[in-house]
Design goal:
about 625 residues, alpha/beta, eight-stranded mixed β-sheet, seven-stranded mixed β-sheet, 19 helices, 30 strands, about 30% helix, about 25% strand, globular, binds 5'-O-[(S)-butoxy(hydroxy)phosphoryl]adenosine
């Protein structure tokens, strides 16, 4: 592979990277996977523990409701913890954690299993049963992965809501999942300030109306309201005799639900992506092992939040399945100074750093002197995820952080895919800004509107043509929407919602979303959510939100609002509206810019034409306007 000449700017893998890589020839691996897809995944699945072997690797008889490892019995938590805690790995560090204020905590595999079992016993004593949904709304503290793993250990389904979301987003997700239990923290540290998580949770619990108990982890120690008969302290329950002893693991069917995770879609309410124990386990285990080339001695840092799929798959499940050491940091990258990340890499000897382009661009602004003060020689591999990485940021990351030695794994995937889909491996020549090619066994294509593959370098719709084990199984309680949203545009193919092009070497270049999803700092937000938050303000009749390019965030939200009849435009209205959205959805959804307008461009059927607003804002030609109402 290394001797093949590729077009454009190419970074060839170093001999070192190839020498120690698990995979040295990915073309061969791809050919094998294509020849026998089921055999390829079965080989990986066989490295994990099954209480009962599966009958069939892939059942596509009810497609697009694919099933994997049919008849197999397992529990992902057994493979994350018990499998290691019962071997010589029991003393190896599973989780390392640093708090924003500098505190340090760590858990060996043995200790983590013990904590998870203890908390699982607490959950059982509160009446949580197999199949129940548990909402988790916490800061980045070790109790967050502990809560996820304890929930899954007893067969319940976790629904983690990102701690940066606020009242409305949380209430909606609690209600939709019909959770009776909420696990939260008194507060979370962020940039030296305290985010009042419990206070937000109280308001959301009141709006949602399904929660019977709230479990509270003490993090800040600030005074909070504890409602008698509903709210309980985590540390008090963990100190009770009921928490002690082991906790029998629930034997799960491979296809039993593991978790749901809400993500923004094109219309209306956020949808709950459903992942299962068996296939998701095999997919995250395999992709992390080969892409980040996990070795026994590695310390792996995925700097995402556990509240997003990146954190689910690659802070919690993937690293633990691989018996690796996963590092987690509570706070902001630049707190108290812009060298915080580099300091921690040096201090803990991190070998692999996986983060988002927006974070890289944000840190780049502070200049090279900050990272250059630190010894970053432990780093071996770097990663990027969340949005396309611009070549300048890629090269800065490669040169300044990776010192030109560390290949960058630019991984394209989605909440829905559960695992990396387009990604290099350390043995692969890289082109800055391209995720290279699909993971072995994954077939993708780029299609024109009428479903024909486009020519090299032409833009089109990115689709997935083969099932993969970590794929979403459905949208919770909404199988029709699952079919309609992902599988109806091109029969038999999964529609990603992204546009992309493929160059003459077969490398994929993802361009961005083609639907009403905006990626702000890598976070996924639906225009519909932002608009409904704006319209919930008393002065607003209608709203439209679009994403416009932003130097650090990738995209920033711009909103256009129409006032209700009789409402006056006041000096503070725009700022009020920004605060209102921030309070309802969270600071990440706060619009950068709001303009008060007299009318919004709509189709004759009443749909807002956001592309017209976008074209206007960018000074471009709005294109076909035949459906525009007067
Ligand atoms: C969307 C999915 C999966 C982890 C985090 C995001 C964009 C993601 C890349 C990448 C270009 C990327 C796509 C995708 N995206 N990774 N490496 N290059 N774009 O998960 O919130 O479900 O968002 O993120 O637009 O569809 P998500």
């Amino acid at each position: 592979m290394a001797d093949k000449t590729l077009s454009g700017e190419v970074f060839y893998p170093t001999e070192d990277a190839i020498r120690q890589a698990h995979v040295k020839d990915w073309d061969k691996m791809r050919e094998e996977a294509e020849r026998d897809l089921e055999g390829f995944w079965a080989k990986e699945a066989n490295e994990l523990h099954w209480f009962q072997h599966w009958d069939k690797v892939l059942d596509d008889s009810k497609k697009p409701f694919f099933q994997w490892f049919v008849g197999g019995k397992t529990n992902i938590v057994y493979n994350c913890l018990d499998r290691h805690a019962e071997t010589a790995r029991r003393n190896k560090l599973a989780l390392l954690w640093e708090g924003e204020k500098g505190e340090f905590r760590s858990f060996s595999y043995f200790a983590l299993r013990r904590e998870v079992c203890r908390f699982a016993n607490v959950l059982k004593s509160l009446g949580v049963k197999k199949g129940d949904r548990v909402t988790i709304y916490m800061g980045r503290v070790p109790e967050l992965p502990i809560a996820m793993l304890a929930t899954a250990r007893i067969g319940a389904v976790h629904s983690v809501v990102y701690g940066g979301f606020t009242v409305e987003a949380l209430a909606e997700r609690i209600e939709d999942s019909q959770s009776k239990l909420l696990i939260t923290c008194d507060g979370a540290y962020q940039r030296g300030k305290i985010v009042p998580l419990k206070q937000i949770a109280d308001e959301a619990v009141q709006r949602a109306g399904t929660i019977e108990s709230v479990l509270v982890v003490k993090r800040t120690g600030e005074p909070i309201n504890m409602e008698q008969g509903r709210d309980l302290w985590y540390h008090e329950l963990m100190a009770l005799p009921i928490a002690n002893g082991g906790c029998q693991i629930e034997v799960m069917d491979a296809e039993d639900p593991l978790y749901m995770l809400y993500t923004s879609g094109t219309t209306g309410k956020p949808k709950a992506i459903l992942h299962t124990h068996g296939g998701y386990m095999v997919g995250t285990y395999t992709t992390l092992k080969y892409v980040f080339d996990i070795h026994e001695e590695d310390r792996f840092w995925c700097a995402a939040d556990p509240g997003w799929v990146t954190g689910h798959s690659y802070i919690v499940y993937g690293p633990l399945l691989n018996g690796a050491t996963s590092f987690m940091y509570e706070g902001a990258p630049t707190y108290p100074y812009p060298n915080r990340w580099w300091q921690m890499i040096e201090k803990y000897g991190i070998n692999i750093l996986y983060t988002a382009p927006t974070a890289i661009r944000g840190l780049m602004r502070f200049g090279e002197a900050w990272p250059n003060r630190h010894d970053l020689s432990s780093l071996r591999l770097l990663g990027s995820v969340g949005e396309p990485i611009n070549p300048e940021a890629w090269k800065w990351y490669h040169r300044v952080i990776g010192k030109g030695r560390c290949p960058i794994m630019d991984t394209w995937w989605q909440t829905e895919t559960g695992m990396f889909m387009i990604t290099p491996m350390p043995c692969v020549p890289l082109k800055p800004g391209s995720g290279t090619r699909p993971f072995p066994g994954v077939k993708m294509d780029i299609l024109s509107e009428d479903g024909k593959p486009v020519k090299p370098n032409e833009e089109g719709f990115l689709v997935i043509k083969t099932p993969w084990p970590a794929m979403l199984r459905t949208l919770y309680k909404d199988p029709e929407r699952y079919v309609q949203q992902y599988w109806s545009k091109y029969p038999g193919m999964y529609m990603t919602g992204d546009s992309a092009r493929r160059d003459e070497d077969g490398y994929y270049w993802v361009i961005g979303r083609v639907d009403d999803v905006i990626k702000v700092s890598g976070y996924r937000l639906g225009t519909a959510e932002i608009e409904s938050a704006l319209v919930s303000h008393h002065a607003i009749a209608e709203a439209a939100a679009i994403g416009l390019p932003h130097e650090v965030k990738g995209n920033a939200i711009h909103a256009y609002v129409m006032l209700k009849a009789g409402q006056q435009k006041t000096d503070t209205l725009v700022e009020d509206l920004r605060q209102h959205v921030s309070k309802e959805l969270g600071p990440i959804a706060k619009p950068e810019h709001i303009e008060i307008v007299d009318s919004l461009p709509k189709t004759r059927s009443g749909k807002i034409m956001r592309r017209v607003l976008k074209a206007r804002a960018l000074g471009q030609d709005p294109g076909n306007l035949t459906t525009l109402e007067e």
